[in-house]
Amino acid sequence: MYRINNNYLKLENNYLFSKIAEEKQNYLRNNPEKELIDLSIGDVTLPLVSSVQKGIKNGLELLSCNSTFSGYPPASGHDFLKNKILNVDYKNIPIDLDELFISDSSKGDITHILDILDNNLNVAIQDPVYPVYVDSNIIRGNNIIFYDSIEEIIEKKLDVDIIYICNPNNPTGKLLPRETLEKIVSYALNYNILIFYDSAYEAFIQDKNAIHSIYEIKDAKKVAIEFRSFSKTAGYTPLRLAYTIVPKEISNLNILFKRLKSTKYNGPSYLSEYGIYSVYKDNNLHELKENISYYLKNTQILNDYFYFKGMTNEKEVNSPYVWINVKNDSWDYFYYLLNNFGIVCTPGSGFGKNGKTYIRLTGFNTFENTLKAIDILKKDLK
Ligand code: MLT
């Protein structure tokens, strides 16, 4: 007889963003005449930049011709793109080609990598943070130790096997300074701890002193695995593409990750790869940067409003999110914003207990809708 993995029964009934989507649909069904402004999930709204469009068309032509057709991609992606990523994104950091794994999603890599580690591990996860880390560890039956600030791990000498770091943090947008990252890398080295470093939002960092890759920290290659995604950086949420660095210095994890990839995946989509390849090849990264600036401008507009109201602490934004202290239960506030203003937010409690009285707004909607949302809120937000 089949048996369910009981750990699945320990998950919340709905994934945070599925529940929000459901509430949004219910509202629209009951209020067909009303308009909503969705500032909840971090999903892009600008169309694909022209070099991505061109690359996908080129890729399609290659696949449409006998002499250039190719079938299954390598399980960790094609070298033509891997070389570009290493030469541009990791220009001054020595990473070997076989330490880079291109995939269809960071979410996939960050959850599936747990397959090659033992169960019942102690994992340190920040509260609040992207809920996928928590869910994937619940599924594995791991013991989760929540930390408020990363210094706490060192101060309390937490006995953990893995430390998750999301920098800039989703949802708070906070950046960790280099010194803090140096301390945590050194702690991980001393106690043989693995660091999962999620830098999905590194392209949004504005602070000139901030680090962009964990490998800028000395010896981080001995302990850290870095995850990056093209979803928000290149408008790839509909196309899917991401990459993960698994250094060969970390025991045999590189070989085992390769093994996992070759059994479970057949590599990323050629067309998705070709779209990004075209951006790098033609030196068109400025097109991506323009879109990122557009989203950051929206985020700054939202941030300025709530900063003025004393509801957020950060003056400048370093991510596409604004973390707002609403001093009320976050789901109650979600319904308050939805029903009174037609604005959809993400309730902070979905990111952990520390988010109980917070909401998160995103700058990923259009400039016009962002301004419209501010106008609506200015009228009578309590
Ligand atoms: C977010 O809004 O935090 C993310 O875009 C959601 C996700 O990646 O699943």
Q: How would you characterize this protein structure?
A:
- The chain has 12 helices and 12 strands.
- 41% of the residues are buried.
- α7 links the parallel β5 and β6.
- 39% of the residues lie in helices and 13% in strands.
- With 382 residues, it is α/β, with parallel strands linked by helices.
- The strands form 3 sheets. Strands 2-8-7-6-5-3-4 form a 7-stranded mixed β-sheet, sandwiched between helices. A 3-stranded antiparallel β-sheet has the order 9-12-11.
- The chain binds D-malate (MLT).
Shape: globular
Find the count of extended strands (DSSP E, 2+ residues): 12
- Residue share in helices? 25-40%
In round numbers, the mean pLDDT is 97
What keyword list fits this structure?
alpha/beta, three-stranded antiparallel β-sheet, 382 residues
List the helices and strands and how they pair.
Layout: H1 16-30, E1 37-38, H2 50-63, H3 79-88, E2 100-103, H4 106-112, E3 122-126, H5 131-140, E4 143-147, H6 151-155, E5 162-166, H7 178-191, E6 194-198, E7 224-229, E8 242-245, H8 253-264, H9 270-281, H10 285-308, E9 321-325, H11 330-341, E10 343-344, E11 346-347, E12 358-362, H12 367-380
Parallel strand pairs: 1-10, 3-4, 3-5, 5-6, 6-7
Antiparallel strand pairs: 2-8, 7-8, 9-12, 11-12
Helix pairs in contact: 2-9, 3-9, 4-5, 10-12
The site of D-malate (MLT) has 6 residues, from loops.
Briefly say what this structure is.
Helices cover 39% and strands 13% of the residues. It has 382 residues and is of the alpha/beta class.
